[in-house]
Design goal:
single chain, alpha+beta, 13 strands
Length: 403
């Protein structure tokens, strides 16, 4: 992306009609094109770029924000890395030698919390190839893993790509194995892997395998437990318990209840007891709502942190949430541009009409609530049709009075 292609301010939003271009602009619009993001620290998500012009032999990987790509590296050979999670702009730090950031020159020598991969050197996928790849005559589509944020060719996913009209998130096989508890969730919530037989679900019940790790057993049947205290205490030869092992019936019932309550609170443990498993092979495609299915108990949260995937619990961290923010900003810019082109009388007329519509909509919704009626798409459609009819009647009356 050379010659300042990243400057979103240079694009006329009114002329944007192509859907792919709108999506690309949404990625850029979510980041500030004029202020270096370094001042905001490690941002939840932002557009990140790398500069081939500034890179020297043996240089550590570096990334720069949108503003620095526009101002500090204007005219350089810049390539876009899409968005990166929890990233802090490197422009002008020690890895750039004598090159200084024009927007935020006072920076730490290194951003130690930044996570880099081969994308910063212009290589992608498990095949470690560049993009675009001159040797790729087909121009194969690529998809990003939401955990490692690397991009993969469809042929290198380790499975057939899932074709769906619904938005899906992909986790590569390597990241699934780094957070192996995700395989249990995948058996229940992920899109079934594509097989040679249409619509065949390769997940199979395997209760024995899933429950064999539990310590609590009674009559040969495994029971889930979250506490070693559920293991039966040994008895003396005469059948009595030692003094330290004696517990009242009330204590035992209370302890048993606590164990069951703790197990019930852990979604992951409950899923394991159901025994459905999925082959741990290939990338996994998830419907967009899958994060809400993850357990948030203390033990599971600790496991997310240990695996480095705690961000999965933050649904505002997703690429879609970031793009929607960008699209919202694009719409605001477009509306502001259109609004500012009107004269004062026209602006006031729009404001009055908007307030009238808002008041009528509130009254309409209040009436439905008072009558105990459901707010349906048909009801909303009818409301706006009536609103348009009123507008036409007022317009007609005005024309008649003028004549």
């Amino acid at each position: 992306m050379a010659d300042n292609e990243g400057n979103v301010a240079a694009v006329s939003l009114v002329d944007v009609e192509d859907e792919e271009l709108r999506e690309a602009l949404a990625v850029l619009a979510g980041s500030d094109p004029d202020q270096c993001s370094y001042q905001q620290g490690y941002m939840k998500r932002q557009a990140v770029f790398a500069c081939n012009t500034c890179r020297t032999e043996g240089m550590e990987p570096t990334g720069v924000c949108l503003a620095c790509a526009n101002h500090c590296h204007d005219g350089h050979d810049i390539f876009e890395l899409y968005t990166k999670r929890n990233f802090c702009c490197d422009c002008g730090n020690k890895n750039f030698g004598t090159f200084e950031c024009k927007l935020s020159p006072k920076k730490d020598s290194q951003n130690t919390k930044n996570v880099y991969n081969h994308n910063y050197f212009g290589r992608y996928c498990s095949c470690d190839r560049p993009y675009p790849d001159e040797d790729d005559q087909v121009g194969e589509e690529m998809i990003q893993c939401i955990i490692c944020e690397d991009w993969y060719h469809l042929k290198h996913l380790g499975c057939a790509a899932v074709d769906s009209e619904e938005l899906l998130e992909m986790v590569c096989e390597s990241c699934m194995n780094k957070a192996p508890f995700l395989w249990t969730y995948a058996a229940y919530f992920a899109t079934p892997p594509v097989t040679s037989k249409e619509n065949e679900d390769v997940t199979t019940p395997n209760v024995e395998k899933e429950t064999s790790s539990y310590p609590c057993r009674d009559g040969g049947h495994a029971e889930p437990s979250t506490s070693q205290g559920c293991i039966k205490n040994p008895t003396l030869p005469n059948g009595d318990r030692t003094e330290s092992q004696k517990r009242t019936r009330e204590e035992m019932e209370r302890h048993s209840s606590a164990c069951q309550s703790e197990a019930a609170l852990c979604k992951l443990k409950n899923l394991k007891t159901k025994g459905l498993v999925r082959p741990r092979v290939g990338s996994v495609f998830w419907p967009y709502c899958w994060r809400s299915k993850l357990c948030t108990c203390t033990d599971c949260k600790r496991a997310y942190v240990e695996a480095g995937v705690q961000f999965l619990l933050d649904e505002s961290d997703t690429v879609l949430a970031y793009e929607n923010k960008g699209k919202s900003l694009l719409r605001e810019d477009l509306l502001t541009s259109c609004f500012s082109s009107l004269d004062r009388v026209q602006q006031l007329e729009i404001i009055y009409q908007f307030n009238d519509m808002k008041d009528e909509l509130h009254a309409f919704l209040r009436d439905l609530a008072d009558q105990g009626k459901e707010v349906t798409p048909e009801a909303i459609h009818a409301f706006f049709e009536e609103l348009q009819a009123k507008k036409r009647r007022r317009s007609s009356a005005g024309q008649y009075n003028c004549s």
